[in-house]
Design brief:
By secondary structure, the chain is an alpha+beta fold. It has helices at residues 18-21, 27-55, 64-145; strands at 147-148, 151-154, 162-166, 175-180, 188-192, 200-203, 207-212, 217-219. A hairpin with a 7-residue loop joins strand 4 and strand 5.
Length: 220
């Protein structure tokens, strides 16, 4: 007789298993429950291991490389500070020199201005001296041209016509005479032995004038 195989599963001896009788899953169900537990356990182990591994790492500040770099950094900072101090000192000296140069340049400019003024004054004085020299020279030349000494002079060619006076008091031996020009003293127009004082004569062109021991005569 054929039977319908819809009855609960039987065990090895034809008995129904407890899991099948109560509707519970078999081995596949247990396997699915174990996976989350294993994953959680692995995470705990890894976390604990990470903590242990982290606490076991050496402090980098205690390494030779770190110490060497720290010493090098300290040396560089010292050198930098020394360089900054040296720069500040040099900059201060430079500023002092620059200010001193500016002050000296200002003084030099003032001195140059004074020298320029002095040069201008000297040039003005030189021009004035030259003008006076020229004036004196001209006066002397004029005086020399208008001064007559002892001798015989032709008025109009040797001396200028005009009034002449003895430059100083004459002595008792002074003699002067006015003659017609070309007469060789033969045609006397006027003469005198003044004997002293400063005699005066008036001379015209065409006359000869003779002065003997009377000194200088100056045209007035």
């Amino acid at each position: 007789m054929l039977t319908n195989d819809t009855s609960p599963a039987h065990g090895p001896e034809g008995e129904v298993s407890a899991e099948a009788a109560h509707g519970q899953p078999g081995k596949s169900g247990k396997s699915r429950r174990r996976k989350p537990i294993l994953l959680a356990s692995a995470a705990v182990v890894l976390f604990a291991g990470g903590i242990a591994f982290g606490t076991a790492l050496p402090d980098p500040k205690n390494s030779e490389a770190y110490t060497s770099l720290a010493d090098e950094k300290s040396t560089v900072e010292i050198e930098r500070d020394a360089a900054l101090s040296s720069y500040a000192s040099i900059k201060g000296k430079y500023d002092t020199l620059e200010n001193g140069m500016a002050s000296r340049e200002s003084k030099v400019a003032a001195k140059e201005a004074e020298v320029g003024k002095a040069d201008a004054a000297v040039k003005t004085a030189e021009a004035a001296v030259k003008a006076r020299e020229e004036a004196v020279t001209g006066a002397e030349k004029t005086k020399a041209a208008n001064t007559v000494g002892d001798g015989t002079w032709t008025v109009g060619s040797d001396i200028e016509p005009g009034t002449y006076r003895a430059a100083a008091a004459v002595g008792s031996t002074c003699y002067w005479g006015i003659y017609r020009s070309g007469s060789n003293g033969g045609d006397i127009i006027e003469n005198d032995i003044p004997g002293g004082g400063r005699p005066v004569v008036t001379l015209s062109a065409g006359q000869d004038f003779n002065s003997t021991r009377c000194g200088k005569w100056e045209k007035q």
